[in-house]
Specification:
- The structure is a single chain.
- This protein is mainly β.
- It has one domain: Ribosomal Protein L9, domain 1 (3-Layer(aba) Sandwich), CATH 3.40.5.90.
- The chain is about 0% helix and about 15% strand.
- The protein has no helices and three strands.
- Strands 1-2-3 form a three-stranded antiparallel beta sheet, with no helix packed on it.
- Strand 1 and strand 2 form a beta hairpin.
- Bound molecules: FE2/S2 (inorganic) cluster.
Length: about 70
């Protein structure tokens, strides 16, 4: 089974890579071309749940990082 990866882009969308099924709240499946999708996390896209690059114009800032725990 292929691995699914989700990358949080700095000041941008969630990039999803791999074989996923994306559904709306009613369970209807979105048609997705290929195995790479960008999901909006700024809330401003006019094509939600997909990113339409509006985050670049609306001043969306999100620079959080995953917390790393030092190895003992
Ligand atoms: S993250 Fe790109 S339009 Fe929202």
């Amino acid at each position: 089974m292929a691995e699914v990866r989700i990358k949080v882009r700095e000041n941008g969308p969630y990039l999803v890579t791999g074989p996923v099924t994306l559904t709306d709240c009613d369970g209807n499946v979105y048609e997705v071309q290929g195995e790479n999708i960008a999901l909006c996390r700024c809330g401003q896209s006019s094509t939600k749940p997909f990113c339409d690059a509006t985050h670049k114009r609306c001043g969306f800032v999100a620079t959080e990082r995953a917390v790393t725990v030092p190895q003992e």
